[in-house]
Amino acid sequence: RRVHGDRSIESRMADQSQSQSQPQNQPNPDGVDDLVQRLLSLCDHTDAQQMLESQAESLENLDFSIKVLKEFNEFSQTLYTQSENQFQYHTRMAKEMRSDLESIMYRTRALKRRLEKHALAVAAQAKTEEGTVGFEPRPPVTPPPTVGDVEPLAATIDTVAESSQLSTAPQVTQAESVDPS
After folding, report:
1. What is Dmax (Cα atoms) for the chain?
2. Is residue 122 within 8 Å of 142, Cβ to Cβ?
3. Which uninterrupted H or E stretch holds 7?
4. Which has more confidence, 178 or 25?
5. Residue 147 backbone dihedrals phi, psi, to 5 degrees
6. Alpha helices, DSSP H only, in the chain?
7. CA distances in angstroms from 126 to 59, 118, 121, listed in the order given
8. What is the torsional sign of CA 174, 175, 176, 181?
9. What pLDDT is stored for residue 165 in this prediction?
10. Cα distance between residue 48 and residue 43, in whole Å
């Protein structure tokens, strides 16, 4: 226990609490009590009661509005989450479709280039074969026989007959001998 002078701290606190609990009947030199009394006389108790009721009603409306807004925010958050997931899914799907289409277009272009090269090679081969496929060796041109030359006439007839047998025989060309598979 601390002692300050003749009295302890506890005794001093007890004296202060007693002095505060006793009403002070001394007049207020500032006139605050008079001002408060005048203000209270200007206010009607029914008006004050109406103001309190209207404040209570406004508070209820505010609480209801806050409750509705919280529910709306929760609902909006749920919808936003769903739409965000759908958007991410569709974005991912669009990216995959794009990469698939790019792959398809790349393969199509490569196949087109290969087909063009193959077509050019086949056309070039056909042109070179075209000159040799239908080529038949022709007999040498001999002067027309004269009346006195019977033997050359017989030789010419034999040559023409041999060449006609060659031309009527079925010919196997290189294009036919190639396996189509």
Report:
1. 183
2. no
3. strand 7-8
4. 25
5. -65, -35
6. 9-21, 32-42, 45-133, 150-168, 174-177
7. 97, 12, 8
8. positive
9. 55
10. 7
Token duo for residue 165: 């047998």
Q: Which of 180, 175, 145 is nearest to 160 (CA)?
A: 145
Determine if the pTM surpasses 0.90. no
Residue type at position 151: E
Q: Are 145 and 156 in contact (CB under 8 A)?
A: yes
What SS3 state is found at 157? helix
Higher pLDDT, 5 or 121: 121
Q: Does 50 score more than 60 pLDDT? A: yes
Minimal CA–CA distance to 118: which of 110, 129, 128? Answer: 110
What region does 62 belong to: left with phi over 0, alpha with psi -120 to 50, or beta?
Answer: alpha
- Exposure class string for 99-115: b at 16+ Cβ within 10 A, else e: eeeeeeeeeeeeeeeee
